[in-house]
Amino acid sequence: MADALKEKASIKSFPKNFWVVILMEFFERGSYYGVMSVLSVYLVLNVDKGGLGFTKESVGVIKSVITPLLYLLPILSGAIADRFGYRKMLMFAFTVMSTGYLLTGLASSYALVFMSLLLMVLGAGSFKPVISGTIARTTNEGNSTLGFGIFYWSINLGAFIFPLILIPILKDISWSYIFFMAAIGTGSLFFLNLFVYKEPERPKSTKTIGEVFVGMFKVLIDWRFILMIVIYSGFWILYFQMFDTVLWYLKDHMDMAPVDKFVNGILGIFISNPKWIFDAEHVTVINAGTIILLQLLVSSIVKNTKALPTMIVGIGLGTIGMGILAISSHAWVFMAGIIIFSIGEMTAHPKFISYVGLIAPEDKKALYLGYSFLYGVIGSGIGGILGAYSYVHFVDKLNNPSALWFMFSLIGVATILGLLLYAKFIAPKGKH
Predict the structure, then answer these.
(1) The total number of structural domains that make up the chain
(2) Dihedral (C-alpha) 240, 154, 151, 102: value to the nearest 10 degrees?
(3) Sign (positive/negative) of CA torsion 414, 418, 424, 430?
(4) Does 311 share its domain with 189?
(5) Are residues 171 and 260 in the same domain?
(6) DSSP per residue, 20-78
(7) CB–CB of 413/319 below 8 Å?
(8) Which of 186, 390, 393, 396 has most Cβ atoms within 10 angstroms of its Cβ?
(9) CA 337 – CA 1 distance, rounded (Å)
Protein backbone atom coordinates (compact mmCIF):
# COMPACT_ATOMS: atom_id res chain seq x y z
CA MET A 1 0.00 0.00 0.00
CA ALA A 2 2.80 2.44 0.91
CA ASP A 3 4.56 1.66 -2.39
CA ALA A 4 1.34 2.26 -4.29
CA LEU A 5 0.83 5.61 -2.59
CA LYS A 6 4.45 6.52 -3.28
CA GLU A 7 3.93 5.70 -6.93
CA LYS A 8 0.80 7.86 -7.00
CA ALA A 9 2.73 10.81 -5.64
CA SER A 10 5.57 10.62 -8.18
CA ILE A 11 6.30 13.23 -10.84
CA LYS A 12 5.20 10.74 -13.51
CA SER A 13 1.73 10.49 -11.95
CA PHE A 14 0.61 13.85 -13.34
CA PRO A 15 -1.10 14.06 -16.76
CA LYS A 16 0.01 16.44 -19.53
CA ASN A 17 -2.71 18.96 -18.68
CA PHE A 18 -1.17 19.41 -15.22
CA TRP A 19 2.19 20.42 -16.69
CA VAL A 20 0.50 22.70 -19.22
CA VAL A 21 -1.12 24.77 -16.46
CA ILE A 22 2.11 24.74 -14.41
CA LEU A 23 3.84 26.27 -17.46
CA MET A 24 1.01 28.79 -17.77
CA GLU A 25 1.32 29.68 -14.09
CA PHE A 26 5.08 30.16 -14.36
CA PHE A 27 4.88 32.58 -17.29
CA GLU A 28 1.79 34.43 -16.02
CA ARG A 29 3.16 34.93 -12.50
CA GLY A 30 6.63 35.71 -13.87
CA SER A 31 5.12 38.41 -16.09
CA TYR A 32 2.98 39.75 -13.24
CA TYR A 33 5.72 39.88 -10.61
CA GLY A 34 8.18 41.16 -13.18
CA VAL A 35 5.91 44.16 -13.74
CA MET A 36 4.92 44.57 -10.08
CA SER A 37 8.56 44.47 -8.94
CA VAL A 38 9.13 47.89 -10.54
CA LEU A 39 5.65 49.32 -11.33
CA SER A 40 5.48 51.72 -8.37
CA VAL A 41 9.00 52.98 -9.13
CA TYR A 42 8.25 53.47 -12.85
CA LEU A 43 5.02 55.35 -12.18
CA VAL A 44 6.67 57.93 -9.87
CA LEU A 45 10.02 58.19 -11.66
CA ASN A 46 10.71 61.54 -13.34
CA VAL A 47 9.79 61.72 -17.02
CA ASP A 48 13.36 62.68 -17.95
CA LYS A 49 14.50 59.37 -16.45
CA GLY A 50 12.00 57.33 -18.42
CA GLY A 51 9.19 57.21 -15.86
CA LEU A 52 5.73 58.76 -15.86
CA GLY A 53 6.16 61.28 -13.04
CA PHE A 54 2.92 60.52 -11.16
CA THR A 55 2.60 61.49 -7.49
CA LYS A 56 3.01 58.75 -4.89
CA GLU A 57 -0.51 59.42 -3.59
CA SER A 58 -2.00 58.85 -7.06
CA VAL A 59 -0.04 55.60 -7.40
CA GLY A 60 -1.37 54.55 -3.99
CA VAL A 61 -4.90 54.99 -5.35
CA ILE A 62 -4.12 52.81 -8.37
CA LYS A 63 -2.66 50.05 -6.21
CA SER A 64 -5.56 50.22 -3.73
CA VAL A 65 -7.98 49.56 -6.60
CA ILE A 66 -6.24 47.05 -8.87
CA THR A 67 -4.79 44.72 -6.20
CA PRO A 68 -8.06 44.20 -4.27
CA LEU A 69 -9.75 43.44 -7.60
CA LEU A 70 -7.18 40.72 -8.22
CA TYR A 71 -8.38 39.03 -5.01
CA LEU A 72 -12.09 39.69 -5.59
CA LEU A 73 -12.50 38.66 -9.23
CA PRO A 74 -11.76 34.92 -8.80
CA ILE A 75 -15.11 34.47 -7.02
CA LEU A 76 -17.08 35.47 -10.09
CA SER A 77 -14.61 34.19 -12.69
CA GLY A 78 -14.48 30.79 -10.97
CA ALA A 79 -18.26 30.48 -11.10
CA ILE A 80 -18.33 31.61 -14.75
CA ALA A 81 -15.58 29.12 -15.67
CA ASP A 82 -17.53 26.29 -14.03
CA ARG A 83 -20.60 27.23 -16.08
CA PHE A 84 -19.07 27.96 -19.49
CA GLY A 85 -15.75 26.11 -19.56
CA TYR A 86 -12.15 26.53 -18.49
CA ARG A 87 -10.71 26.95 -22.00
CA LYS A 88 -13.12 29.78 -22.83
CA MET A 89 -12.23 31.56 -19.60
CA LEU A 90 -8.52 31.17 -20.36
CA MET A 91 -9.04 32.56 -23.88
CA PHE A 92 -10.66 35.61 -22.35
CA ALA A 93 -8.03 35.93 -19.58
CA PHE A 94 -4.97 35.80 -21.83
CA THR A 95 -6.48 38.16 -24.42
CA VAL A 96 -7.49 40.80 -21.87
CA MET A 97 -4.37 40.40 -19.73
CA SER A 98 -1.86 40.74 -22.56
CA THR A 99 -3.79 43.70 -24.01
CA GLY A 100 -3.67 45.37 -20.59
CA TYR A 101 0.09 44.95 -20.34
CA LEU A 102 0.62 46.18 -23.92
CA LEU A 103 -1.50 49.30 -23.40
CA THR A 104 0.22 50.08 -20.07
CA GLY A 105 3.56 50.09 -21.89
CA LEU A 106 2.18 52.48 -24.52
CA ALA A 107 0.20 54.80 -22.22
CA SER A 108 1.57 57.86 -20.45
CA SER A 109 -1.50 59.63 -19.03
CA TYR A 110 -2.78 58.71 -15.58
CA ALA A 111 -6.28 57.77 -16.78
CA LEU A 112 -5.02 55.53 -19.60
CA VAL A 113 -2.46 53.78 -17.38
CA PHE A 114 -5.15 53.21 -14.74
CA MET A 115 -7.59 51.72 -17.29
CA SER A 116 -4.86 49.58 -18.87
CA LEU A 117 -3.90 48.14 -15.48
CA LEU A 118 -7.57 47.44 -14.77
CA LEU A 119 -7.67 45.38 -17.99
CA MET A 120 -4.56 43.50 -16.88
CA VAL A 121 -6.11 42.71 -13.49
CA LEU A 122 -9.40 41.63 -15.09
CA GLY A 123 -7.41 39.06 -17.06
CA ALA A 124 -5.25 37.97 -14.12
CA GLY A 125 -8.27 37.62 -11.83
CA SER A 126 -10.06 35.51 -14.46
CA PHE A 127 -6.99 33.28 -14.87
CA LYS A 128 -6.36 32.42 -11.21
CA PRO A 129 -9.29 30.07 -10.35
CA VAL A 130 -9.03 28.16 -13.64
CA ILE A 131 -5.44 27.12 -12.95
CA SER A 132 -6.04 26.01 -9.36
CA GLY A 133 -9.27 24.31 -10.52
CA THR A 134 -7.41 22.39 -13.24
CA ILE A 135 -4.75 21.27 -10.76
CA ALA A 136 -7.46 20.07 -8.37
CA ARG A 137 -9.01 18.06 -11.22
CA THR A 138 -5.75 16.57 -12.51
CA THR A 139 -4.54 15.36 -9.10
CA ASN A 140 -5.88 12.78 -6.67
CA GLU A 141 -5.70 12.07 -2.97
CA GLY A 142 -2.31 10.43 -3.38
CA ASN A 143 -0.54 13.20 -5.31
CA SER A 144 -2.46 16.43 -4.58
CA THR A 145 -0.02 17.59 -1.91
CA LEU A 146 2.90 17.21 -4.33
CA GLY A 147 0.84 18.75 -7.15
CA PHE A 148 -0.03 21.90 -5.22
CA GLY A 149 3.56 22.06 -3.92
CA ILE A 150 4.81 22.16 -7.53
CA PHE A 151 2.15 24.79 -8.27
CA TYR A 152 3.38 26.95 -5.35
CA TRP A 153 6.99 26.57 -6.50
CA SER A 154 6.09 27.58 -10.07
CA ILE A 155 4.64 30.85 -8.73
CA ASN A 156 7.77 31.66 -6.74
CA LEU A 157 10.09 30.49 -9.51
CA GLY A 158 8.44 32.94 -11.90
CA ALA A 159 8.59 35.69 -9.27
CA PHE A 160 12.31 34.89 -8.79
CA ILE A 161 13.61 34.45 -12.35
CA PHE A 162 11.77 37.23 -14.23
CA PRO A 163 12.77 40.14 -11.92
CA LEU A 164 16.28 38.72 -11.48
CA ILE A 165 17.17 38.20 -15.14
CA LEU A 166 14.72 39.91 -17.50
CA ILE A 167 13.75 43.14 -15.74
CA PRO A 168 17.29 44.63 -15.36
CA ILE A 169 17.99 43.98 -19.07
CA LEU A 170 14.67 45.35 -20.32
CA LYS A 171 14.58 48.54 -18.24
CA ASP A 172 18.07 49.45 -19.48
CA ILE A 173 16.56 49.54 -22.97
CA SER A 174 13.23 51.12 -22.04
CA TRP A 175 10.79 50.78 -19.13
CA SER A 176 8.07 50.13 -21.71
CA TYR A 177 9.82 46.92 -22.73
CA ILE A 178 8.96 45.42 -19.34
CA PHE A 179 5.26 45.70 -20.18
CA PHE A 180 5.82 44.47 -23.73
CA MET A 181 7.63 41.42 -22.28
CA ALA A 182 4.63 40.73 -20.02
CA ALA A 183 2.26 41.17 -22.97
CA ILE A 184 4.24 38.59 -24.98
CA GLY A 185 4.67 36.29 -21.97
CA THR A 186 0.92 36.13 -21.31
CA GLY A 187 -0.27 36.56 -24.90
CA SER A 188 1.70 33.52 -26.05
CA LEU A 189 -0.22 31.44 -23.52
CA PHE A 190 -3.34 32.04 -25.63
CA PHE A 191 -1.86 29.67 -28.21
CA LEU A 192 -0.81 27.13 -25.57
CA ASN A 193 -4.43 27.14 -24.42
CA LEU A 194 -5.75 26.95 -28.00
CA PHE A 195 -3.60 24.02 -29.18
CA VAL A 196 -2.44 22.07 -26.09
CA TYR A 197 -4.68 22.66 -23.07
CA LYS A 198 -7.60 20.24 -22.74
CA GLU A 199 -10.88 21.00 -21.00
CA PRO A 200 -10.79 18.93 -17.78
CA GLU A 201 -13.71 16.78 -16.75
CA ARG A 202 -15.77 18.56 -14.13
CA PRO A 203 -19.23 18.27 -12.61
CA LYS A 204 -21.90 20.16 -14.52
CA SER A 205 -22.45 23.47 -12.75
CA THR A 206 -25.89 25.03 -12.57
CA LYS A 207 -24.90 27.77 -10.15
CA THR A 208 -26.03 31.20 -11.29
CA ILE A 209 -24.15 34.44 -10.59
CA GLY A 210 -26.99 35.31 -8.19
CA GLU A 211 -26.36 32.11 -6.26
CA VAL A 212 -22.67 33.03 -6.04
CA PHE A 213 -23.68 36.24 -4.26
CA VAL A 214 -26.00 34.29 -1.96
CA GLY A 215 -23.03 32.07 -1.08
CA MET A 216 -20.97 35.16 -0.37
CA PHE A 217 -23.68 36.50 1.97
CA LYS A 218 -23.78 33.22 3.91
CA VAL A 219 -20.04 33.48 4.55
CA LEU A 220 -20.13 37.18 5.37
CA ILE A 221 -22.69 36.73 8.16
CA ASP A 222 -20.32 34.34 9.97
CA TRP A 223 -18.92 37.15 12.12
CA ARG A 224 -16.25 35.00 13.81
CA PHE A 225 -14.77 34.06 10.46
CA ILE A 226 -14.94 37.61 9.10
CA LEU A 227 -13.41 39.05 12.28
CA MET A 228 -10.47 36.64 11.99
CA ILE A 229 -9.98 37.67 8.35
CA VAL A 230 -10.08 41.37 9.26
CA ILE A 231 -7.49 40.90 12.02
CA TYR A 232 -5.21 38.78 9.82
CA SER A 233 -5.46 41.44 7.08
CA GLY A 234 -3.30 43.69 9.26
CA PHE A 235 -0.28 41.56 8.36
CA TRP A 236 -1.04 41.95 4.66
CA ILE A 237 -1.02 45.73 4.96
CA LEU A 238 2.66 45.18 5.80
CA TYR A 239 3.17 42.66 2.99
CA PHE A 240 1.92 44.98 0.23
CA GLN A 241 4.48 47.60 1.25
CA MET A 242 7.05 45.36 -0.46
CA PHE A 243 5.64 46.55 -3.80
CA ASP A 244 5.35 50.26 -2.96
CA THR A 245 6.93 52.04 0.00
CA VAL A 246 9.84 49.60 0.39
CA LEU A 247 10.75 50.16 -3.28
CA TRP A 248 10.55 53.94 -2.97
CA TYR A 249 12.66 53.80 0.20
CA LEU A 250 15.26 51.69 -1.57
CA LYS A 251 15.49 54.16 -4.46
CA ASP A 252 15.45 57.30 -2.29
CA HIS A 253 17.51 56.36 0.76
CA MET A 254 19.42 53.11 0.43
CA ASP A 255 23.05 52.65 -0.62
CA MET A 256 23.30 49.00 -1.64
CA ALA A 257 27.02 49.19 -2.54
CA PRO A 258 28.06 46.59 0.12
CA VAL A 259 25.64 44.04 -1.39
CA ASP A 260 26.74 44.94 -4.93
CA LYS A 261 30.39 44.43 -3.96
CA PHE A 262 29.65 41.04 -2.37
CA VAL A 263 27.60 39.74 -5.32
CA ASN A 264 30.09 41.03 -7.90
CA GLY A 265 32.88 39.34 -5.91
CA ILE A 266 31.10 36.01 -6.35
CA LEU A 267 30.25 36.68 -10.01
CA GLY A 268 33.89 37.62 -10.60
CA ILE A 269 34.83 33.98 -10.09
CA PHE A 270 32.89 33.10 -13.23
CA ILE A 271 32.96 36.24 -15.40
CA SER A 272 35.35 39.16 -15.79
CA ASN A 273 34.46 42.64 -14.53
CA PRO A 274 30.85 42.00 -13.41
CA LYS A 275 28.70 45.10 -12.83
CA TRP A 276 25.64 43.72 -11.05
CA ILE A 277 23.58 46.34 -9.19
CA PHE A 278 20.91 45.71 -6.55
CA ASP A 279 17.76 47.57 -7.60
CA ALA A 280 14.02 47.70 -6.89
CA GLU A 281 13.18 44.47 -8.72
CA HIS A 282 15.49 42.50 -6.44
CA VAL A 283 13.20 43.01 -3.42
CA THR A 284 10.78 40.58 -5.09
CA VAL A 285 13.74 38.30 -5.87
CA ILE A 286 14.75 38.17 -2.18
CA ASN A 287 11.18 37.37 -1.12
CA ALA A 288 10.63 34.64 -3.73
CA GLY A 289 14.16 33.23 -3.35
CA THR A 290 13.78 32.94 0.43
CA ILE A 291 10.52 31.04 -0.01
CA ILE A 292 12.03 28.71 -2.64
CA LEU A 293 14.99 27.92 -0.37
CA LEU A 294 13.25 27.65 2.99
CA GLN A 295 9.56 26.83 2.52
CA LEU A 296 10.00 23.05 2.79
CA LEU A 297 12.14 23.45 5.94
CA VAL A 298 9.71 25.89 7.58
CA SER A 299 6.71 23.72 6.64
CA SER A 300 8.34 20.64 8.17
CA ILE A 301 9.09 22.53 11.40
CA VAL A 302 5.50 23.77 11.86
CA LYS A 303 3.61 20.84 10.33
CA ASN A 304 2.33 19.62 13.71
CA THR A 305 1.93 22.98 15.47
CA LYS A 306 -1.44 24.63 16.16
CA ALA A 307 -2.62 27.08 13.53
CA LEU A 308 -3.30 30.31 15.44
CA PRO A 309 -0.10 30.26 17.58
CA THR A 310 1.95 29.53 14.44
CA MET A 311 0.25 32.38 12.57
CA ILE A 312 1.08 34.68 15.49
CA VAL A 313 4.76 33.60 15.42
CA GLY A 314 4.89 34.17 11.66
CA ILE A 315 3.31 37.61 11.94
CA GLY A 316 5.74 38.35 14.77
CA LEU A 317 8.67 37.53 12.48
CA GLY A 318 7.17 39.70 9.73
CA THR A 319 6.75 42.55 12.19
CA ILE A 320 10.38 42.19 13.32
CA GLY A 321 11.46 42.21 9.67
CA MET A 322 9.59 45.46 9.07
CA GLY A 323 10.91 46.92 12.33
CA ILE A 324 14.49 46.15 11.34
CA LEU A 325 14.12 48.67 8.50
CA ALA A 326 13.54 51.36 11.15
CA ILE A 327 16.78 50.54 12.99
CA SER A 328 19.34 51.19 10.28
CA SER A 329 19.66 52.10 6.60
CA HIS A 330 22.69 49.84 6.11
CA ALA A 331 22.40 47.59 3.05
CA TRP A 332 22.80 44.31 4.94
CA VAL A 333 20.28 45.38 7.59
CA PHE A 334 17.80 46.09 4.79
CA MET A 335 18.45 42.63 3.32
CA ALA A 336 18.00 40.99 6.73
CA GLY A 337 14.68 42.78 7.21
CA ILE A 338 13.29 41.54 3.88
CA ILE A 339 14.49 37.96 4.51
CA ILE A 340 13.05 37.81 8.04
CA PHE A 341 9.77 39.24 6.77
CA SER A 342 9.66 36.54 4.06
CA ILE A 343 10.23 33.80 6.65
CA GLY A 344 7.35 35.25 8.65
CA GLU A 345 5.12 35.19 5.57
CA MET A 346 5.87 31.55 4.75
CA THR A 347 5.29 30.60 8.41
CA ALA A 348 1.97 32.39 8.82
CA HIS A 349 0.15 32.03 5.51
CA PRO A 350 0.01 28.24 4.99
CA LYS A 351 -1.26 27.91 8.57
CA PHE A 352 -3.90 30.54 7.87
CA ILE A 353 -5.22 28.47 4.94
CA SER A 354 -5.12 25.38 7.16
CA TYR A 355 -7.02 27.20 9.92
CA VAL A 356 -9.78 28.31 7.55
CA GLY A 357 -10.24 24.66 6.58
CA LEU A 358 -10.45 23.72 10.27
CA ILE A 359 -13.08 26.24 11.33
CA ALA A 360 -15.28 26.05 8.21
CA PRO A 361 -18.50 24.02 8.48
CA GLU A 362 -18.09 20.54 6.98
CA ASP A 363 -20.46 21.24 4.09
CA LYS A 364 -18.97 24.69 3.32
CA LYS A 365 -15.20 24.15 3.39
CA ALA A 366 -14.66 24.99 -0.28
CA LEU A 367 -16.86 28.06 0.06
CA TYR A 368 -14.94 29.35 3.10
CA LEU A 369 -11.58 28.70 1.48
CA GLY A 370 -12.78 30.60 -1.57
CA TYR A 371 -13.66 33.65 0.51
CA SER A 372 -10.56 33.52 2.70
CA PHE A 373 -8.93 35.68 -0.02
CA LEU A 374 -10.61 38.69 1.66
CA TYR A 375 -7.36 39.19 3.61
CA GLY A 376 -5.81 40.36 0.32
CA VAL A 377 -8.71 42.66 -0.54
CA ILE A 378 -8.53 44.42 2.83
CA GLY A 379 -4.73 44.36 3.14
CA SER A 380 -4.04 45.76 -0.32
CA GLY A 381 -7.01 48.13 -0.28
CA ILE A 382 -5.75 49.81 2.89
CA GLY A 383 -2.04 49.20 2.30
CA GLY A 384 -1.77 51.00 -1.03
CA ILE A 385 -3.26 54.33 0.06
CA LEU A 386 -1.97 54.20 3.64
CA GLY A 387 1.56 53.39 2.46
CA ALA A 388 1.64 56.14 -0.18
CA TYR A 389 0.28 58.94 2.01
CA SER A 390 2.39 57.85 5.00
CA TYR A 391 5.53 57.74 2.85
CA VAL A 392 4.94 61.27 1.59
CA HIS A 393 4.34 62.49 5.16
CA PHE A 394 7.12 60.71 7.06
CA VAL A 395 9.78 60.37 4.37
CA ASP A 396 9.32 63.08 1.75
CA LYS A 397 8.16 65.84 4.12
CA LEU A 398 9.71 64.95 7.52
CA ASN A 399 12.72 62.98 6.21
CA ASN A 400 12.07 60.37 8.92
CA PRO A 401 11.75 56.93 7.27
CA SER A 402 12.26 55.20 10.64
CA ALA A 403 8.89 56.59 11.75
CA LEU A 404 7.25 55.02 8.69
CA TRP A 405 8.60 51.54 9.45
CA PHE A 406 7.84 51.95 13.15
CA MET A 407 4.22 52.79 12.26
CA PHE A 408 3.88 49.65 10.13
CA SER A 409 5.52 47.59 12.89
CA LEU A 410 2.83 48.84 15.27
CA ILE A 411 0.19 47.56 12.81
CA GLY A 412 1.95 44.19 13.03
CA VAL A 413 1.88 44.33 16.84
CA ALA A 414 -1.83 45.25 16.75
CA THR A 415 -2.46 42.23 14.49
CA ILE A 416 -0.66 39.94 16.94
CA LEU A 417 -2.65 41.31 19.89
CA GLY A 418 -5.86 40.95 17.91
CA LEU A 419 -5.16 37.28 17.12
CA LEU A 420 -4.18 36.59 20.76
CA LEU A 421 -7.51 38.02 21.95
CA TYR A 422 -9.34 36.16 19.18
CA ALA A 423 -7.72 32.87 20.21
CA LYS A 424 -8.60 33.43 23.87
CA PHE A 425 -12.18 34.69 23.64
CA ILE A 426 -13.67 34.02 20.18
CA ALA A 427 -11.99 31.12 18.33
CA PRO A 428 -13.93 27.82 18.30
CA LYS A 429 -12.59 25.73 21.15
CA GLY A 430 -10.14 23.00 20.23
CA LYS A 431 -9.56 24.39 16.74
CA HIS A 432 -6.75 26.89 17.24
Answers:
(1) 2
(2) 70
(3) negative
(4) no
(5) no
(6) HHHHHHHHHHHHHHHHHTTHHHHHHS-GGGTS----HHHHHHHHHHHHHHHHHHHHHHH
(7) yes
(8) 186
(9) 46
